[in-house]
Amino acid sequence: MTDLDLITNAARKAGAIATRFFDADPKVWEKPGQGPVTEADLAVDKMLNDMLLTARPDYGWLSEETADTDARLNTTHQFVVDPIDGTRAFIEGSKDWAISIAVVSNGIPSAAAIYLPMRDNLYAASHKTTAALNGRDIIISPNCKTVLATRPTMDGQHWKNETPPNLKRHFRSSLAYRMCLVAEGRYDAMVTLRPSWEWDIAAGSLIIERAGGIVSDRTGASLAFNSAMPQLNGVIGATPKAHAEIMDRLI
Prior knowledge:
Elements: H1 3-21, E1 28-31, E2 35-38, H2 39-55, E3 60-63, E4 77-85, H3 87-92, E5 98-105, E6 108-116, E7 121-126, E8 132-133, E9 136-137, E10 146-148, E11 168-170, H4 175-183, E12 189-192, E13 196-197, H5 198-210, E14 214-216, E15 231-232, E16 235-238, H6 240-249
Helix pairs in contact: 1-2, 4-5
């Protein structure tokens, strides 16, 4: 079984677990400085850890809901996992939360699966395949009209002459889902300027790139994963035209 087959199967199984808790008043805790976590996050994390590391015991592990160790730094391949990306949306009853799984090989994503159980949308890609949604190839838009971002991201302080790009702003809670929507061609860019965790970004970055888009940090540098501190300096994922426009305007 390929890594892509493994993680797409795992994403669907994780979705089945998460949906049992959805709209069922799951237990919720606050992680200091990191927002909420639910019993669904923890149940999905445990299942994915068991399933994926049983299949690939020599791979490292990085997950939002597992205490990180240095062990992954000594591995060639790692699973990079967000059991539920968009936990606030999950708690609020929105459909826009996702299970995000990537395989990172020598610092670069090589397989990716992002699954939205409540929409039954499975986005997937590998370094050998195109990006796909439910088995159908997807491709980015040719346009430079829309951006998925928070309101503070588009505040003038971040942009030359305090003027952000002329892009209509939209929002989705899950960073992984934002990246998939760009890959699917429904939006032209996603931007986050805050330090971003690898587990939010790894799978989506490969899906955008295999759909024909560009992904970088806020300085325009390519993304590298499996860092000792697993954070990135913001993320811009976009069509080539929108990426160039954003980088030209960004301070």
